[in-house]
Design brief:
Length: 518
């Protein structure tokens, strides 16, 4: 098969949402549609909320499947669709953000009763920064929720993105009748089999008793208003992430899913290229294979050091047994063990194409952000660093183990598992993370891989801000509420106690230009 054709068939996206909005349910229904699974309940790992955070090891073991279910491929309408999971709850970590670097579009799931929630907002911002298309699925229409206009308004004002409803709900909760499909002016009823059709005057082509229902008439009026006064459909704006197509449905009832998928495959982008450190944009259809690593899943079994490195194939075709060079150290090796993921299974693969995500067995050779290539030399730009929110002082329990301790920190930091800071005067190591899980993984790996017990002392939640004009920083600006530390590149960073402390500082020292990472 022609490489170009294979690549054209690929669509790779992540689902972003706040816990409980219905991400797992939607994923499962998409897989059902794609025939990748036969029954609901196959995608596990969503109930991690039941466990205390310190139980993460147990959680990982019990659900076992979490690795495999973090990337899944299914077929729909001739396309090969890759869904990437963005772990939430206490699994939230920098990996969650980095996953968004490996996709070409995102699907945002919103609970109709709750609207935009904090985690959705965080993940959305990363998608927006990348300028990738964002599709919105407003879920749980079978329950009472906010009014559709209110939800669109909330999306537009909170996220600063235009909306274009592709479907429009008729009623909600007990009176949910169905959705109007804007593209073909049909109505898909929630509880009935047959579709209804609307004519140009918004009248039903065939009479139906629903016409007597006032909620129905209200929804038709709203729909007319959307058509007349809403944002224009604009493919280019969708492609840039400036306008989001919006769908209404109920994942649990497998309702509105097909309408979503049909439109998604029409407007979601094919695999896009990536930029190299030399500023060159590599096209996915480039003859040479290349890709970058965006996540490393450490083995949970302490007896085995091997890990799984997740790679986004950026260009060309991957073939099992091929030679690839690691750009960081120019070492060439044969890739003999690679896997791809199905819903409840992972299988060894023989080939993959640009757009696909593959898992490479790793005995400690890879780091997050690494490029692998065959043929022409290339190296992709580094993955961004994200602003951590949680901090922990860390030290070795046994002072005799300082060497192991620092080696462990250095490697885990390089690998992207955690961020490293140190205090101004005492050089006390401080770890930074976006999610609590990162600390737990760090502690576990220090013990198991570097044989070092550590002591961690929470510094708590802080707002980290870097400084554009470091030369203007004075020692006197350092205080417990605006604590000055160094990052791993020896840049100075203020850790503010809270928003108030940051504003107070900005007022007092207007000459200091603060900025955050992503
Ligand atoms: P998440 O991955 O985003 O965290 O959400 P998940 O799919 O686990 O869904 C969270 C809860 O919302 C689940 O209920 C799920 O059944 C429910 N849900 C998902 N989609 C819909 C929908 O369209 N309508 C309604 N009414 N509920 C929906 P739960 O009680 O927490 O779990 P379960 O015991 O039902 O599995």
């Amino acid at each position: 098969m022609d490489i170009k054709n294979e690549i054209k068939k690929r669509k790779t996206f992540a689902i972003i949402s706040h816990p409980d909005a219905g991400k797992t349910t939607l994923t499962e229904k998409l897989l059902l549609f794609g025939g990748a699974i036969r029954e609901a309940g196959t995608v596990k790992g969503k109930k991690s909320g039941k466990f205390a955070t310190s139980d993460w090891m147990k959680v990982e073991q019990e659900r076992g499947i979490s690795v495999t279910s973090s990337v899944m491929q299914f077929d729909f309408d001739g396309y090969k669709i890759n869904i990437l999971d963005t772990p939430g709850h206490e699994d939230f970590s920098e990996d969650t953000y980095r996953t968004l670097m490996a996709v070409d579009s995102a699907v945002m799931v919103i609970d109709a009763a709750k609207g935009i929630e904090p985690q959705t907002l965080k993940l959305f911002k990363v998608c927006k920064m990348r300028g990738i298309p964002i599709f919105t699925f407003i879920n749980k229409l079978d329950r009472m929720g906010k009014e559709p206009f209110e939800l669109l308004e909330e999306i537009e004002s909170t996220l600063e993105i235009e909306t274009y409803p592709m479907t429009w709900p008729i009623g909600m909760g007990p009176s949910f009748f169905g959705i109007i499909n804007r593209r073909d002016r049909t109505i898909t009823p929630f509880r009935e089999e047959d579709k209804l059709t609307l004519d140009d005057d918004y009248q039903l082509a065939e009479p139906h008793k629903i016409e007597a229902d006032s909620a129905y008439r209200d929804s038709i009026d709203e729909f007319m208003l959307v058509e007349e006064a809403g944002d224009e459909f604009d493919k280019e704006k969708i492609a840039k992430g400036d306008l989001t197509p919006v769908f209404f449905g109920s994942a649990l009832s497998t309702f509105g899913i097909e309408e979503f998928l049909d439109t998604y495959v029409d407007f979601a982008p094919q695999p896009t290229g990536r930029e190299t450190t030399e500023g060159q944009e590599i096209d996915p259809t480039d003859d040479d294979f290349s890709g970058f690593i965006f996540k490393i899943q450490a083995n949970m079994d302490p007896k085995h050091r091997d890990r799984l490195a997740f790679m986004r194939v950026v260009s060309g075709k991957f073939t099992r047994g091929m030679d690839a060079t690691l750009a960081r150290n120019k070492k060439k090796s044969k890739i003999t063990r690679a896997t791809m993921f199905m819903a409840d299974d992972k299988e060894t693969i023989n080939e993959a194409y640009a757009g696909d995500i593959i898992g490479l067995y790793d005995t400690g050779n890879y780091q997050i952000g690494d490029t692998l290539y065959s043929g022409k030399k290339r190296e992709y730009v580094d993955l961004p660093q994200f602003t951590p929110e949680l901090f922990m002082k860390v030290s070795a329990k046994n002072v005799m183990k300082q060497k192991h301790f620092y080696k462990g920190i250095e490697q885990l930091v390089q690998e992207g598992a955690i961020q490293y800071y140190k205090s101004m005067h005492t050089n006390q190591p401080i770890l930074g993370a976006v999610g609590q899980l990162q600390f737990e993984v760090f502690e576990h790996r220090m013990k198991n891989e570097y044989n070092t017990d550590i002591i961690m002392e929470p510094v708590g939640k802080k707002i980290a801000r870097w400084v554009e004009n470091e030369e203007d920083i004075k020692d006197s600006m350092n205080s417990p509420r605006a604590n000055l530390v160094y990052d791993r590149y020896d840049q100075q960073v203020f850790l503010f106690e809270n928003d108030f402390a940051m504003r107070w500082f900005a007022d007092k020292y207007p000459e200091i230009k603060l900025y955050s990472l992503l």
